[in-house]
Amino acid sequence: MIDQADFRELMSRLPSPVCVVTTDGPAGLAGLTVSAACSVTDTPPTMLVCVNRSSRSYAALMENREICINVLGSRQQEIAMRFASSKGDMAEKFEGLPTHKLRGGAPAIEGCLASLDCSIVKTADIGTHTVLFCEVHASSSEEDEGLTYFRRAFLCLS
Q: What pLDDT, on a 0 to 100 scale, did the predictor assign at position 158?
């Protein structure tokens, strides 16, 4: 089996979109930055998101079952860093952040390339992570350049 450090180095060479996954509901307001999110199928429209079970947002995501996958644009690097940080409480992460609601209760962040309002319909545990399969019920989008994470740095794609 490949060494963990080698695997992480190889994965740093795989460009990925930068997303902030948010939720709100009975388990409270929560959010985190993820780089493992992609489409699964268009019938029904379904996304997958990989979340580390040690994340402090994990329990809220799993209990609320309603999430918004916010695909960040080029001018939203600060938002990515805010939700990636382990510092501060959740209320501080959302403080002053313009959001709106789509169909469900999860916050859609203003100015994102895309915000996908979803329900978690299935999960699978793999190693340290849970893969969330999420059916998309509503969306919003804006024009911008994309924010990508590659070789441990943010890059903008036009």
A: 80
